[in-house]
Amino acid sequence: MQLLELEKKVRKPKKIKAAGVLLICEKTGNFLLLERNKLAFFPKTWSVVAGAMEEGETSLETVKRELKEETQIDPTPIRFQFFETQYDFKSFDLYLGYCEEEYECKLDRENDNWGWFNMNNLPHPLFPTLYSSLVRIF
């Protein structure tokens, strides 16, 4: 009985899982990056659209929700393709999202800036794991 009570009191740490998408314009080959605000994990770095998974949500559902919340881009016409799971900071599922045009963004308060880039005009500084992912993609 005491062991059962102890097990109930001990809380297992939650596994933090997140997902993100690198949006790629099929016409131009450019990809969308967001500049994280000063309160974000790795503040003022450029990264993909990303966020933590909510309970009961799949990583693809997370990506679609975050895309809409952070940029106001409708995920419906975008073709999503799973790319990889990264384990550097947390479990992070990265998707590629293919779109027909370079959408305008209306940012939420999590990000300060946005832009469409390619490997020849990357912004700085990048989120720590982003460059190695970009090299594998392009």
- Report the count of strand segments: 7
Summing up helix and strand content along with how strands pair, one would put the structural category as: alpha+beta
Question: What would you call the shape?
Answer: globular
In the CATH hierarchy, the third-tier topology is known as Nucleoside Triphosphate Pyrophosphohydrolase
Overall mean pLDDT stands at 90
Give me the side-by-side strand order of the main sheet. 4-1-6-5
In short:
The chain is α+β, with helices and mostly antiparallel strands.
Overview of the molecule:
- The protein has 138 residues and is of the alpha+beta class.
- It has a single domain, classed as Nucleoside Triphosphate Pyrophosphohydrolase, CATH 3.90.79.
- The protein is 21% helix and 33% strand.
- The chain contains 3 helices and 7 strands; from the N terminus they run H-E-E-E-E-H-E-E-E-H.
- It has a 4-stranded mixed β-sheet with strand order 4-1-6-5, covered by helices on one side.
- A hairpin with a 4-residue loop joins strand 5 (79-86) and strand 6 (91-99).
- It is globular and about 35 Å long.
- The model is unreliable at 3-14 (pLDDT under 50).
